[in-house]
Amino acid sequence: MPASANRRPGVGGGARLSIGQVLAQLQEEFPELSHSKLHYLEAEGLISPERTPSGYRKYSRDDVDTLLFVLRAQRDRFWPLKVIKEHLLEHGADGSDVTSIASRPGPSAQLRPVRLDRRGLMLEAQVDDDFLDELEQFGMIEAGLLFFGGTELEIVKAARRLADEGLHPRHLVMLRTSAEREAHMIDSVARPRSRPGDPASRGEVEDLVRDLGESMITLHSALLRARLRRS
C-alpha cells in the first residue's frame, strides 16, 4: 500500500491544522477520537504538534500520518502503545502499512463506522421490525435510538444468526448481563486513574478501557473455544 493511502486528503505539505480540524478529519474513521486522546498521545511522545505563541497546537501532515498509524495499529492490530512507539522510532509512520507489519488483528478489528436509521439497520442486518423490538425488549440494543452505529449492527447481525439456529433474544439475556458485569469490572479498574483537570489522563483512561475490553473479549473467546472443545 503506498504511503498516500494512509493519509487523509486536505492536509497540504505546509498546512497546519488545529486540534478541532484534526478531529473533524479523523472522526469519520475513528468516531470515539477525542481531545483527551490526542493530549494523551502527545504526553506519551507519539506526536509532537507545534505550538503557536498563544499555546495552541498545530498539526502537520506528518502528525496526521502518525496519528493514523497509531490509531489503526491500536484498532486493527491490538498493538500496545509501547510497541507502536518502538516501531515509529525505528521506522517512522511514512509508508508503513498497518496490515502488513502487524502480527494479528484485535477482536474488534472488523467493526466499520456506520450511521443507520432504523430502516437502514433492518435492511443491512436483514431483520424485521419485530426482531429489533425483541432485541430492545431484552436489552440487547438501547431502545429509542434514532441512529445506529457499527456496534449495534454487529449485535443485530450476530443475534440474527443465533436466532436462525433457535437461540432467540430472550435466550441471550445472560450474555447481556455478563457484558454489563465485565464493563463494571473494567470501569472500576480504569476510572480511579482519571485525574480531574488533566486531559491526558482522560486519554490514558480511554486507552486503558479499550485495552482491558479487548483483553476481556480475547479471554472470553478463548474460554468459550476451550469449553466447546470439551463438549
Q: Provide the residue-averaged pLDDT.
A: 83
Based on secondary structure, the structural category is mainly alpha
Specify the helix fraction band.
Answer: 55-70%
Span of the ends, CA to CA: 44 Å
What's the helix-strand series?
HHEEHHHHHHHH
Number of strands: 2
Catalogue the unreliable spans. 1-12, 99-110
Query: So what's the overall shape?
Result: globular
**CATH C-level category of the largest domain:** Mainly Alpha
Instruction: Report the biggest beta sheet as strand number plus sense, adding barrel if it closes.
Output: 2 strands, antiparallel
Kindly provide the radius of gyration, computed on alpha-carbon positions and rounded to a whole number of angstroms.
20 Å
Strand order of the largest sheet: 1-2
CATH fold type of the largest domain:
Multidrug-efflux Transporter Regulator, Chain: A, Domain 2
Proportion of strand residues: under 5%
Number of helices: 10
The total domain count is: 3
So, CATH architecture of the largest domain? Answer: Orthogonal Bundle
